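Hi, here's the filled form for the chain we discussed.

Project: internal
Contact: R.S.
Residues: 178
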Amino acid sequence: MADGLNQARAVRVAELINDYRTLLLHISQQQVDASAEEYYEEGFTVLRECHAAAQRLVSANYQPCPMTGRGNADTEKAELQRVITDSSARRFQAHKIYLRAAAARRWTMTRANILRGQRPTSAHAPALKAAHVTLQQELGRVTDQHVVSDLRAADLRAGHWLDDDPSLDTILRWIAGR
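And the returned structure, exactly as it came back:
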């Protein structure tokens, strides 16, 4: 039965899609060129993986449900809830990619500051190892629960309507089913 919240659902869809678009833009800005010697360093590898994952995400089309009851508020509600789940899953994936890319980008900047245009030597080894450990720690913190909690906290700070937002389990099932 219609509950009169379809306008709130439509606004939520717009918020989620805007966040998703913004995240994809930020991911694209995390690119760094690596020399042949640096190409397989972990931070550069993570950045390449993130860009490939973002491209796969962008190429995954939304599959709308055929609308059968034109003007039917219940049908509209069901489709809006489906779009909220899909856009929440896409935003979740994009945010996870972004957090990983940002950690790798920080690693590349730290590495550049350590090396200052020089080739790595044994004198750089302790600082480079520390940068590697920091990258590992940051990547380790990018868990599904952390990502969904981070997004929820931002939504709450912004005062968004979250009544139909899917749980982490629902998001993960949606992703697995695509």
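Let me know if anything looks off before we file it.
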